[in-house]
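Sequence, please.
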């Protein structure tokens, strides 16, 4: 039983060094630096080699380190990541054990589950892994199994990936065109069209359609694509008219093939669930890291290729929007890459995979590729992989292919082939792997640790359904669903009929203007600027809100749209902090509605609107159904252009003295929350900045400590060499001493004893004693140096743990500061007469008629404007 290494973020506990010559596991743990995955990894091994256990362990460590991941699972093995049972109770394992295995063992399911639980308990204990570590794993990362084309797991809206990528066409046109090529190839394969996606007329037409829409920033869906095939938005393809290059009859046949997909009831499940959004696959709604398993074992080969290609293209687009980093930002894990990265063929998935292997490291995205078929993988492409995990191989040709790829990786890294990799690979056994890491001095043979997840084997769709719960077309469980809009039925105390079901109020009531309002808009001098606030809620929503506020059963009598008059101020306030590189502009829109008197205006009592200038209308809303609109009479001062203009200076003064930019900042990292940045985005940025700082501090600490450890180690080595020399001298002096004593005794008995002989013997004894003393001194020095080296190593581990713990709770170190603008950074863009729409609802609550005003320009909770 070995002791697990201290818990360190950024260090993956994969197993222990294995003595290949003697066939035994040592007590030296294998700690793999998470950042080494930035240079990608490949894992090869035959069935039964322990490849799945190694990879599950790697992903568990990534989850503990809060590294988000997208996991492509063609076989169903990676679903085992969700089989985590920290309490290791037999009843936890029982639903997932293989019934046939229990039968072969001649045990009941209950007995077999108990045996499995005991096996897992002993296996984890043997590697020093406790239930607390397993609970930590569950708390650090959220898991979701997506089943595109099926509702057994979390559905995934694949067709959402046809939306225009959020990239600058001018700067990223080449990358966007590559994505178009891959998307077109995947679509043709899904529709069963055997055509060259680059040179075939089908591919050329589709690529031009995509470019036409995406260049304008317009999204595509399958229906729009079908209509665009029959009626292309472009007139020429190359030098020929579209109808000449691709006749309409042939285009109709192509459109019919795609329409057959769209019309298929089975295909409807491809249009449900979360969109294929890489950012949402990597992080939950609250910014927590997420491991998204893309389960595709149930699909046909063409459907798998379609999904994998679109996913990889979306990952590329996401990657290009990230900032550069040397720390591990996220993982893309492909459990069985066979068929998607072949040595000679060019399936749609190969180009984006190769691009990721070449470019992703600059953005902190690690790619891990796994296969049990080494001969069917393009090892020239895998020369970009910095880490190779090589397990037991079945055939000699598999070993030759792996060695060829490894040779390329060594050459790419500029390293020599001093190790006999062929001999090492031949001697590997189950759960024993050879790890070649370009960041290490040489290869390491290690035994994989026990997986914390129950390695039950591939799960079927029904088992996935049991694991994740009832199927649903709603967003995955790891992303909280948006709250439903308030409804009448949700408030039992209020039952307010909608206007459609309520009897219409008398016509006379509908035409009468409320006190203070006019049936026509007042005459406004031409030099007065006017603006109309948008009408964001309709009369039905206003009625519902009136009922909610009343809190009792109400009967609606009348609903009228009124336009109240006020003064609108629009300003841009810039906040600058050169020390933090902050240069943010905040748009402020204020509505002052002071009743009948607008002179002596107090902007501090104005309403701050959550609107943008492009939402302002140029005319009042017309509700329809001959429902009139009424306008307030102008308050005093609003018909005076000079008074409206002077209000701009008052607004500028008020903003300078009163408005501040609240900054949520991490003082040490210098990371601050941008205006209008949501909690999720800020949390993700903060976590990545903390990871980068943590890694940098650990590098600096290790470099300093390892220099000191190396210094002590060199002294220790010299002392050990000196000890060996002193021991040899001591043995020689001891031998000389006994020879001299023997000579003296012999001379004594033969009568040839002399004073000189006695002196020589005494000298030899003295020299032997001095040599023994030097040996003891060397031993003491060595013991002191060994203790010093051990103390330095322990201190290094303690300091590393302290750094990891400090950056683990980075959110606890946030503070809030207020940033004031400079006088010159307050720019009042406009002051204008504002017409603000208000719904006036008249109702009877059983105690009498009442009237309530509902601002139509205000946002409803839980709803979009």
């Amino acid at each position: 039983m070995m002791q697990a290494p201290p818990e360190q973020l950024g260090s993956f506990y994969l197993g222990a060094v294995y003595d290949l010559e003697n066939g035994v596991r040592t007590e030296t743990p294998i700690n793999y630096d998470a950042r080494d995955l930035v240079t990608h990894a490949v894992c090869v091994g035959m069935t039964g080699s322990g490849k799945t256990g190694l990879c599950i362990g790697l992903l568990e460590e990534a989850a503990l380190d809060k590294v988000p991941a997208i996991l492509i699972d063609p076989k169903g093995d990676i679903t085992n990541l969700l089989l985590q049972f920290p309490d290791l109770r037999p009843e936890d394992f029982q639903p997932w054990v293989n019934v046939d295995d229990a039968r072969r063992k001649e045990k009941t399911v209950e007995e077999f589950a108990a045996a499995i639980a005991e096996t897992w308990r002993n296996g984890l204990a043997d590697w020093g892994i406790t239930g607390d570590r397993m609970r930590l794993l569950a708390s650090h990362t959220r898991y979701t199994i997506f089943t595109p084309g099926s509702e057994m797991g979390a559905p995934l809206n694949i067709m959402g990936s046809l939306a225009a990528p959020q990239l600058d066409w001018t700067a990223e046109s080449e990358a966007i065109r590559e994505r178009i090529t891959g998307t077109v190839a995947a679509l043709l394969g899904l529709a069963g069209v055997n055509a060259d996606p680059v040179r075939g007329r089908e591919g050329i037409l589709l690529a031009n359609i995509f470019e036409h829409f995406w260049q304008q920033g317009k999204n595509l869906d399958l229906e729009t694509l079908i209509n665009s095939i029959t009626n292309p938005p472009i007139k020429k393809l190359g030098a020929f008219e579209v109808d000449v290059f691709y006749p309409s009859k042939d285009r109709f046949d192509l459109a019919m093939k795609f329409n057959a997909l769209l019309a298929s009831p089975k295909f409807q499940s491809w249009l449900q669930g979360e969109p294929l959004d890489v950012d949402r696959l990597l992080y939950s709604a609250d910014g927590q890291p997420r491991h998204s398993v893309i389960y595709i074992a149930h699909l046909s080969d063409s459907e798998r290729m379609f999904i994998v290609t679109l996913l990889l293209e979306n990952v590329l687009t996401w990657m290009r929007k990230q900032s550069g980093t040397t720390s591990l930002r996220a993982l893309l894990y492909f459990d069985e890459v066979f068929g998607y990265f072949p040595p000679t063929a060019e399936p749609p998935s190969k180009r984006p995979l190769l691009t990721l292997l070449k470019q992703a490291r600059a953005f902190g995205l690690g790619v891990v590729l796994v296969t049990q078929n080494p001969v069917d993988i393009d090892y020239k492409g895998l020369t970009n992989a910095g880490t190779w995990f090589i397990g037991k191989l079945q055939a000699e040709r598999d070993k030759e292919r792996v060695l060829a790829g490894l040779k390329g990786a060594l050459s790419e890294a500029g390293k020599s082939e001093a190790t006999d990799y062929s001999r090492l690979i031949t001697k590997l056994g189950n759960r024993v792997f050879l790890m070649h890491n370009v960041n290490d001095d040489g290869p390491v043979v290690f035994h994989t640790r026990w997986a914390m997840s129950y390695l039950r084997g591939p799960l079927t769709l029904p088992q996935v359904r049991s694991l994740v719960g009832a199927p649903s077309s709603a967003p995955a469980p790891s992303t909280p669903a948006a709250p439903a809009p308030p409804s009448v039925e949700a408030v039992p105390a209020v039952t307010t009929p909608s206007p459609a079901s309520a009897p219409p109020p008398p016509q006379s009531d509908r035409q009468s203007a409320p006190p203070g309002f006019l049936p026509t808009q007042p005459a406004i001098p031409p030099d007065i600027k006017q603006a109309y606030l948008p009408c964001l809620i309709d009369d039905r929503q206003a009625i519902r809100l009136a009922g909610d506020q009343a809190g009792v059963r109400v009967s609606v009598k009348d609903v009228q749209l009124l336009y109240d008059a006020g003064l609108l101020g629009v300003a841009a306030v810039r906040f600058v902090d050169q020390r933090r590189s902050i240069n943010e502009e905040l748009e402020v829109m204020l509505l002052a509605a002071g009743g009948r008197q607008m002179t002596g205006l107090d902007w501090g009592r104005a309403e701050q609107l959550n609107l943008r200038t492009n939402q302002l209308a140029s005319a009042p809303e017309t509700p329809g159904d001959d429902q009139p609109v009424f306008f307030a009479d102008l308050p005093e001062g609003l018909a005076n252009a000079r008074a409206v203009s002077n209000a701009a200076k008052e607004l500028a003064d008020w903003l300078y003295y009163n408005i501040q930019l609240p900054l949520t900042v991490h003082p040490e990292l210098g990371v601050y929350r941008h205006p209008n940045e949501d909690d999720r985005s800020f949390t993700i940025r903060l976590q990545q900045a903390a990871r980068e700082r943590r890694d940098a501090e650990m590098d600096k600490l290790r470099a300093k400590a390892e220099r000191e450890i190396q210094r002590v180690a060199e002294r220790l080595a010299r002392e050990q060499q000196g000890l060996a020399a002193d021991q040899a001298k001591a043995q020689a002096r001891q031998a000389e001493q006994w020879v001299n004593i023997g000579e003296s005794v012999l001379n004594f008995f033969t009568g040839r004893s002399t004073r000189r002989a006695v002196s020589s013997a005494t000298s030899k004894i003295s020299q032997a004693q001095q040599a023994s003393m030097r040996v003891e001194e060397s031993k003491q020095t060595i013991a002191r140096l060994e203790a010093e080296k051990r103390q330095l190593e322990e201190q290094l581990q303690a300091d590393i743990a302290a750094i990891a713990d400090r950056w683990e709770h980075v959110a606890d170190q946030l503070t809030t500061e207020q940033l004031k603008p400079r006088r010159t950074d307050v720019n009042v863009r406009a002051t204008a007469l504002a017409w603000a729409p208000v719904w006036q609802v008249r109702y009877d609550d059983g105690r009498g008629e009442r009237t309530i005003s509902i601002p139509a320009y205000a946002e409803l909770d839980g709803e979009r404007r």
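The chain is about 40% helix and 20% strand.
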